[in-house]
Amino acid sequence: MFKILNRGLALRLSCNYYPGLQLNQHDPLKSHAVSRLMNPANFRIAALTALSLFATPLLIGCGESWASSDEGKPTITPVASVIELTDSNGSTVTLDAPAQRIVAMDPASINIAYSMGINLAARVAAPEALSQTLPPDLLALPEVAFGHATGPNREQLIAAKPDLVLLNPVHAPFASTITETTGAPVLTLEIRTIDSLKEAATTIAKAAGTPAAQETFISNLDNTLQDIKARIPESNETPRILPLFGAYNAYFALLPNSFAGQLIQELGGEVLSADLPEHTLYKGLSPISMETIVNRDPEIIILFDHSGLADPLANLRESSAWTGISAVQDGRVYTLSDVSFVQAPGIDFEESIEELFDMIYPSQVATTEPVR
Fold first, then answer.
1. What is the mean pLDDT for each group of 10 consecutive residues in the chain (372 residues)?
2. Phi/psi at 289 (nearest 5 deg)?
3. For residues 107 and 166, what is the distance between their CA atoms, to the nearest angstrom?
4. Distance of alpha carbon 260 from its chain centroid, rounded?
5. In angstroms, rounded to a whole number, what is the distance separating the alpha carbons of residues 216 and 72?
């Protein structure tokens, strides 16, 4: 049976994707929701922690990259009025006026604001892999460090003088402290799927008093997806694909309701993890064993790698069962960085979906290089 998790590795990985998993048990800020993450049963998910929070989503939906110019970005004058917003937890956040000093503590929301021409007062200090994608104007923004047990750096957050703070729901236990420290309301936005990406854009635009700003963002996202779907070759067969995420000895299946899972289905593929149990806290993900991988016998395996190793599949090859999988025998095992699909879904969207398309339909291109 494939060993799902090395606990030491899990704790190291937790600093990036789901930072709430790495906690000081004596931290007075710890809430019931956070303490659940200290349960050993939940350590299995720690390999997922690369993403979304520092992920975590740096989103470059709508076909633009971080390096894109200001051309085409909306320039809409905010309209002063009381604004009511509903966050991902269903809570109502009321602003007396459009937010002028937004601090994005979730990288998944940074690109959304940037792509819509909404200026930020500060941003979360992103991990190296993500910060390398930032354009100069975003790199120049004041940073707010985020401690996994203590939350945001209070001095840096106060210095940013926010009138609204954007937060990932996993960091919700720190929301009250942020408001007490700064007086600013907190808007939690879960950006995990294509639809939630669009919903977050709509909410952020409304918060900034530019309710039409998301139209170009969403339109570009939809157009990019439709353009590449038009290139799907006609066939009576559906590619059977198993998307994996993680690092050495800690692999997870991405489910159909994950960002990558949705894109695979949009591109005509079948996601073989559909019936696997979803984790109770972290949606779109399920621990997976080598036995399950073998039993599914996928035609294509795509590993969204978090290890950064030159050979992220090395330990999988140690299993004698690995060579019996159809994808391995046919040379249809591929790796992609987890940044665009798990850590920050949507970043460099056009380039990322193009890479995914090339792996599913290599006959349509001549650049895809599989790995065994």
1. 36 39 38 42 43 40 41 52 89 95 91 91 84 84 90 96 93 93 95 91 95 92 96 93 87 94 96 93 87 95 87 83 94 90 83 94 62 49
2. -105, 165
3. 9
4. 10
5. 8
Output the six-digit token pair for 67.
Answer: 């390096």
Give yes or no for a contact between 83 and 209, defined as CB atoms under 8 angstroms apart: yes
Beta bridge partners of 270: 240
Instruction: Give, as one character, the DSSP assignment of residue 247.
Output: E
What is the token pair recorded at 240? 């059977």
Distances (CA, A) of 139 to 46, 134, 166, 334, 341: 28, 6, 18, 31, 22
The alpha carbon dihedral of 197, 202, 207, 212 has a sign of: positive
Return the SS3 of 165: strand
For residues 83 and 95, what is the distance between their CA atoms, to the nearest angstrom? 5
User: CA torsion 172→253→310→342, rounded to 10°?
Assistant: -30
Parallel/antiparallel/unpaired status of strands 92-95 and 83-86: antiparallel
The amino acid present at 31, given as its one-letter code, is S
Distances 265 to 102, 146, 258 between C-alpha atoms, Å:
35, 35, 11
In order, the DSSP letters of 191-242 are: --SHHHHHHHHHHHHHHTT-TTTHHHHHHHHHHHHHHHHTTPPP-SS--EEE
Report the greatest alpha carbon distance in the chain: 65
Residue with tokens 């929070």: 53
- Please check whether residue 92 is in contact with residue 86, taking contact to mean a CB–CB distance below 8 angstroms: yes
- Rounded CA-CA distance 322/340 in Å is 27
Alpha helices per DSSP H over the chain: 7-13, 32-35, 107-115, 128-131, 136-139, 154-160, 175-182, 194-207, 214-229, 259-266, 290-296, 314-317, 326-329, 349-360
d(CA 78, CA 92): 21
Partner residues linked to 334 by β-bridges? 302
